[in-house]
Write a structure and sequence with these properties.
The protein is mainly beta. It contains 1 helix and 14 strands. It has 2 domains: 122 residues, no CATH class; 43 residues, no CATH class. The relative contact order is 0.17.
């Protein structure tokens, strides 16, 4: 996983008790939302067009919430084996996690249910990132497909929305979206 800080800055969930304590500490992410997620496959096709198979998916999820301590949490999910995302545009009212360790091969199966959006993985880590509040993208440049009103570039990196005339300095964005009228 390509992350800004080392994995040592994260806390790993290894037991169901730790999972329960974590979800209690974030109040089930009540009044929260999935701000971003980034999925990376270890498999790839090289420059000679050969497929390197290692189909292992790792994911980062940023959840922001309307509560303090913590206001934002980054989750790292290792070896994601299943996802079901039927409600991406909804607020999180309740969430929970389960951790089951198979006695046969001692491989953990972790299920994270974020108010109906479900992720199943083999490893889970987290850290508080309450300074990551707001609209700015944290996992890379934001891409917005629908941008019907162009912006005018001003001095010192400022831009002006041609729809509502709001001016702002964009941060970490390839496609610009007005923070006032959202065009």
């Amino acid at each position: 996983m390509a992350i800004q800080d080392s994995v040592e800055s994260y806390i790993e969930i290894k037991t169901q008790e730790e999972m329960d304590c974590f979800f209690d500490s974030v109040n089930g992410f009540h009044d929260g939302l999935i701000k971003e997620f980034h999925l990376i496959n270890d498999a790839y096709i090289d420059k000679h067009l050969s497929m390197v198979c290692g189909f292992k998916y790792n994911m980062r999820i940023l959840i922001q919430r309307q509560w303090e301590k913590p206001s934002a949490v980054e989750l790292l999910l290792g070896d994601v084996v299943e996802m079901n995302l039927p409600k991406l545009n909804y607020e999180i009212y309740n969430s929970f996690g389960t951790l089951h360790i198979s006695k046969a091969n001692e491989t953990p199966e972790i299920t994270i249910n974020l108010d109906g959006n479900v992720f199943v993985c083999r490893k889970m880590l987290y850290r508080e990132v309450s300074e990551w509040m707001g609209r700015e993208s944290r996992f890379g440049d934001e891409i917005i497909v629908n941008n019907s009103f162009p912006v005018e570039k001003l001095e010192d990196g400022w831009v002006l929305c041609s729809n509502c005339f709001e001016a702002w300095q964009p941060i970490n964005r390839k496609v610009l979206k007005c923070p006032k009228c959202f065009f």
